[in-house]
Amino acid sequence: DAGVIQSPRHEVTEMGQEVTLRCKPISGHDYLFWYRQTMMRGLELLIYFNNNVPIDDSGMPEDRFSAKMPNASFSTLKIQPSEPRDSAVYFCASSQQGSGEAFFGQGTRLTVV
Amino acid sequence: GQQLNQSPQSMFIQEGEDVSMNCTSSSIFNTWLWYKQDPGEGPVLLIALYKAGELTSNGRLTAQFGITRKDSFLNISASIPSDVGIYFCAGRNSNTGKLIFGQGTTLQVKP
Description:
A: mainly beta; four-stranded antiparallel β-sheet; 11 strands; B: mainly beta
């Protein structure tokens, strides 16, 4: 398997624009996690899904953030409208039911100017 | 919410020295994981622990799952320059599937 695939790797956008980050989990994995990494706050869990259903979105910072998982092989994290303070690296990770191990994608570095 | 307290925050050591870092929580976890992150990359899994008291090694790395299930530590023996990076602990609750991370330990190794 190619591992967790995220796109794009880098995104630069202007404040107020909509941003969509994409993730393809490892085939057969039932859990999908979205994290945000900043120097100040480290790796924050934003939301996670089990079998395509959102289980806990308490980490989503504001209503401007939304995430979907329409099927087992694809998830999106959307920010609308984006703000400079959203600049961070966003990671997607997936894991298999019954196993604690989670595997990460390479991340999307988002810069909002 | 749940929090993992990881220490130390950073370490600067001489090549060949041993390193120890730990993670504590107010909550019980069923799984403890240790990751390493290199610049510009995602965290990579080093060691997974599934049972209280478990001691697991991966080359020069050794990690233990605390008896109380509220803590874990990672040791690196005979450090080398490529050990440089950020090390994260993570705790997972198997009932909910939730996986949260510590703040990370930045390791620098002087040749």
